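S.,

As promised, the EPU run. Input:
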Amino acid sequence: MRLENNISLKDFNTFGMEVSAAKFVAVEAVEDVREVIQLKEKNILILGGGSNILFTKNFEGLVIKNNLKGIEKIKETATHIWVKAMSGEVWHNLVLHCIENGFGGIENLSLIPGTVGAAPIQNIGAYGVEIKDVLEEVEVMNMESGELKTFNNTDCKFGYRDSIFKYQSKGKYFVISVTLKLSLNPEINISYGAITDVLKAKNIINPSIKDVSEAVCEIRLSKLPNPTEIGNAGSFFKNPEVEKSVYNELKKLNPTMPGYEVDSTKIKIPAGWLIEQCGWKGKRIGNTGSHAKQALVLVNYGGATGMEIQQLSKEIQESVFSKFGVRIEAEVNVL
Ligand code: EPU
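Predicted complex:
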């Protein structure tokens, strides 16, 4: 383990922001994490894939790059398998591992950028599935005492792109590993429209988890910009939830407005639709913009600063609010 000073973070954030960290250390083992904690550094940022972060300035504290690796089977019954993955594993590599071995449950979450450790923090989700649907437990290390603790699914208090690690316990723990309960007789979930269309176009009638994964990859690659070509952090905003009565009023004025029922009182409106209606889709301002194929994704065409992206995000929020009276919140962590 080597503590370094003044390290560029450009290659460690998918927006490609040219910022630096005053101190930087990469951890390769659980013992390294414990050693870092003993440094008693006050200002710490744990970095996984850097795919959900917007740096608006240099980071003046210590960045811990998580390189904890390993995937193992810990238990198996006739119907299920429990797979434990270390938090520094690339999420999509875990998905591929599970598909190769016939373990079902996370195929819809194919190609989500980032690491295993970040997945429960924001309860990653796509195409009708969230990690909370298969998560058994999260093992964490207390950032003050170095003690290990296990959170079960209920303890994590999962919500839409939300968990206890984002508010109540923010900054308190380092995620060490995640255990998933996966199915050996996978039930396919293709309720999300676009997947069915892709499978139909390929004449696949009884899709395997591999077919579903490939369909998801195809959809994502067709809509979402590749960060190695155009800097971005996926969806910049969360989809806002509004009361049904509010949605019904808005729908009267905007008959094409999509909406998905969350529960008996709330409707989720796709933020991408709201942003597109305000004329932002594909619009470029300097080196920033809203992506041409998915308005919810803000991009850095090269050389943009975090402040410029933040400014664009504020203008988008304001125009959505003034047109629809709906507030959209950032999904990405802005630092
Ligand atoms: N839409 C538009 N214009 C756009 C984009 C979207 O009108 O430019 C409307 C369309 O009606 C479309 C609907 O929004 O049918 C939904 O769009 P999409 O399927 O692309 O999903 P999303 O709600 O925009 C969410 C997640 C994505 C995830 C997809 C697929 C959030 C904030 N984002 O996006 O997650 O991949 O669903 O399940 O919930 C991410 O979190 O970084 C991310 C990419």
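The chain has a mean pLDDT of 96. The first strand starts at residue 4 and ends at 8.

- D.
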